[in-house]
Amino acid sequence: MPTTAPPRPLDGIRILDAATFIAGPFTTAVLGEFGAEVIKVEQPGAGDPFRRFGTPTARGDSLAFLSEARDKRSVTLDLRQPAGARIFRKLAAKSQVVCENFRPGTMERWGLGWSDLRAVNPALVMLRVSGYGQDGPYAGRPGFARIAHAFGGLTHLAGMPDGPPVTPGSTSLADYMSGLFGAVGVLMALRHAEQTGEGQVIDIALYESVFRVLDEMAPRYAHDGTVRGREGAGTLNACPHGHFPCADGAWVAIACTSDKMFARLTEVMDRADLLARFPTTADRLADRATVDGAVETWTGTMPRDEVVQVCTDGHVPCGPVNTIADLFADPHIAARGNMTQVLAEGLGPVTLPNVLPRLSATPGHIDRAGPPLGADTDAVLSDLLGIPEAERATLRADGVI
Predict the structure, then answer these.
(1) Whole-prediction pTM value?
(2) Which domain holds residue 192?
(3) Which domain of life does this protein belong to (predicted)?
(4) C-alpha separations of 184 from 41, 127, 180, 190, 360 in Å
(5) Looking at 17, 48, 78, 175, which residue is catalytic?
């Protein structure tokens, strides 16, 4: 018998995704997994530049695009042309959310700013993601994740103490963090619109999501002027707390954030002398080189998996420093279903990171990978706006779609 998919919490919500690259599209990807209908609006002929960012597929779109455009419908529409802007306003009138990440002022020049869209839909929620936000002296500057990491204070912290600042990982962390803050903002704004009938703007700067996660740095500087610097693999707040090499050339992470944890570590190391010599965090921080050196010597006597097992048996926080190959082979990743295969039109199955968060009653799911450019243009304009085939043909001939 046919089965019916369980309802999802955002069923009935329609989102116009006019954003490019990662932050805004990541917001809409997350919301789409939980039921929102996401209509991705792209430039005719070219599409989102993210289609060509990363590893290309036989279809021409990148694997990164297939992942972050999951569960979306692709409509081509030239917003720079009056006819394209007019169609976008009509779509906005039938949607609950618009997402964009152009430089501030761009949408306004096209007649698609907040006042323009609010006029056709007072309950509309508009997510605006940019490098520096919609106002302030730097609002007009271009911004990407690497710039946000630097400006927001994170890059200064990444690297070895005696080396240059480095990118905190090769992923576009600021984009993904901003996308999550965007999803939270959209959900709160939708709740407010539901209660009052009034929409609002969500204004997110990429650097702000980075700045928000710098733990105590802001209050500490305001309190005593401390400027934290690069701490390498360790941290100035705990010891041992870092990455340690193993006999097989792999690495582990060990985090002893309390005296109790260090006592457990010295027990599995069979180094009661270390505990006697460095019983408190302050003692260990005063001679980090000796403590870290002892742990490194110990981890270097065993392969990585054995170190992890010994520490786990002794209730010491320890984990492998995994590569993506390690993650694919890990039984816990498999048991949690952290990866899934979905169909990509014209390509077949592709492996993608699975849905987060996990909801017990109304779980999200991925219906398809990112679509071919313009795959849904005719269906959306016909079904949603009632634009007849002849008019669509004229729009296509004029380069509007």
Answers:
(1) 0.92
(2) 14-212+335-397
(3) Bacteria
(4) 22, 11, 6, 10, 19
(5) 175
